[in-house]
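User: I'm writing a short methods note and want a consistent example. For Lon proteolytic domain-containing protein, I'll paste the sequence; you return only the structure tokens, no commentary, since I'll be parsing the reply automatically.
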Amino acid sequence: MSKKGPLAAVAAVLLAALFAVALLVPLPYSVMVPGDASDALGTAKGKPVITITGHPVRQTSGELRTTTIGATLPDARITLVDAVRAWFATDQAVVPRDAIYPSGKSVAQLNKLSAQEMQQSQQAAVSAALSYLKLDPDTVKVTLDLPDVGGPSAGLLFSLGIVDKIQGDGHGGDLTGGKDIAGTGTITAKGAVGPVGGATLKTQAAKAAGATVFLVPKGECSSAKANLPSGLRLVPVVSLQDAIGSLRALHTGGSVPSC
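Assistant:
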């Protein structure tokens, strides 16, 4: 009597068991998803995101939305099934856990670092906007308040919000042209715009919030175009002045750069 049949059956059972275990074993990965898209021209938790004193402030229409991404916590159980599902989803991304949560740093430490980056970004955004407007920072005071958001990625939209509240498009209209504009990008005190990552998911957040235009650092055009939601126009920018020029052109019929 041949033992090949029973042995093959046992091997198949063991292989199936190993495969089942592999599907359920936690992996050292995190899943990232689109986050919030807060309006820099509006309010957050009942308070204005941008408060300006020492200079007249204009009423604005339209929106300037900062975009964020969220991620599973470091102790979240991510299995092979979760990773494969996220890999094929257009509104999720799988990344090594250490890319978000460097080993040796607690969540509290990372949150503190993120808050510090946000504060530095806000200071740079105010400096860039007031410099563009040729206003004295000792006379005009700007306070930025966007709770529960960290990191430097809102810098560009903060600067644009300040400019819109003080000057608009410079011709009596809104910088937004009354549209729902979203975007991302760091900014320096001199107005240079830099990349921050996560553009693919941030465009998803922008579309979900109703935006029709997305301002993206020029160096992130390629990633922003991946899985770009229909009806969302990408506009590459390299500086605050560049972004303001593009927004003006959008509602005056001028030439607007494209990714």
